[in-house]
Specification:
Blueprint lengths: L13 E3 L2 E3 L5 E3 L6 E2 L14 H12 L4 H14 L5 E5 L5 H12 L5 E6 L2 H8 L6 E4 L12 E7 L5 H7 E12 L5 H7 L16 E15 L2 H9 L9 H8 L4 E14 L4
Parallel strand pairs: 4-7, 5-6, 5-8, 6-7, 8-9
Antiparallel strand pairs: 1-2, 2-3, 9-11, 10-11
Helix pairs in contact: 1-7, 2-3
Length: 275
């Protein structure tokens, strides 16, 4: 039995062969790569999330190790809070870089965990499933997570939209949420080269309804990026990509290399126990 539930009736989905089936016989077939589409029927034909070109650029950038210190820190934190038979959900998993890295850490130690990843982009979870990591991937929204209530020991959210109500619903009482956010100086040098008036990232209050703030870990280091193609890939991963004008994009295209700060925070929360 998986933690996934039926987007039609809400019942728990079980895996039968290459399909997910609920007690009411609603059936969802896995794609060739192995992911399942659990988006509501009225949304399943729409285009959501990043396109294939952006996903490929992100995958290539990440696979070159530019964010490896962050990935290593995530694996360490998740390993601290999870063990044998833990259920872990990566909400907004993208192409699966962090998801599969976390799963690999447990596999290396022969610790059996259930790992799930969801993303609203079918192209993203298709790419993630092709990694053949043993993770259960589904196309789904973080605002309507197709997972049973109180089913997860840990929820990981890497720069994904925040939906506290859903995150709290799927986590068990006392469950852990690990959230990655860009810190104040993230990509400051890049922004300084592109914009006339760059601004630092806003660091918001750590307190979240329904969760106890456990702590934060700072990950800060300098990235040396020797190629314009990697600079463009990095920029396409940021929110600035959609807000940048023609003049600024031309400046970006002229950058032959870049030294810029990577500045992240890993925030750790514990779900308040409910009576």
């Amino acid at each position: 039995m998986s933690i996934f539930n039926c987007p039609v009736c809400g019942e728990n989905l079980d895996i039968s062969g290459k399909s997910y089936i609920c007690p009411n016989r609603h059936t969802f077939d896995m794609a060739k790569s192995g992911y399942v589409n659990l988006l509501p029927t009225n949304n399943s034909g729409s285009v959501h999330g990043d396109n294939k070109m952006m996903l490929r650029a992100r995958r290539e950038f990440l696979e070159k190790g530019y964010y490896k210190p962050l990935c290593d820190a995530v694996c360490k934190v998740v390993s601290k809070y999870c063990g044998e038979k833990s259920v872990i959900l990566d909400a907004g998993c993208g192409e699966g870089y962090y998801t599969t890295a976390v799963k690999a850490i447990f596999d290396k130690s022969n610790i059996a965990v259930e790992m799930y990843g969801i993303d609203i982009s079918k192209d993203a979870v298709d790419m993630a499933a092709k990694r053949k990591s043993g993770v259960n991937f589904a196309a789904a929204s973080v605002f309507h997570i197709p997972a049973m209530t109180n089913s997860c020991d840990l929820l990981l959210t890497m720069f994904a939209p925040y939906c506290g109500e859903e995150y709290g619903r799927v986590l068990k009482n006392g469950g852990i949420m690990v959230m990655a956010i860009p810190s104040e100086n993230h990509l400051w040098e890049l922004k300084s080269k592109v914009y006339d008036t760059p601004y630092k990232n806003e660091v918001k209050d750590y307190q979240l309804d329904g969760f106890e703030f456990v702590g934060a870990e700072k990950i800060s280091y300098t990235m040396n990026i020797p190629e314009n193609s990697d600079i463009l890939s990095l920029f396409s991963m940021t929110p600035y990509y959609y807000k940048t004008g023609k003049i600024e994009k031309e400046r970006l295209n002229q950058l032959e290399n870049l030294e810029t700060q990577a500045d992240f925070e890993l925030l750790i929360y514990k779900k308040f126990a409910k009576d």
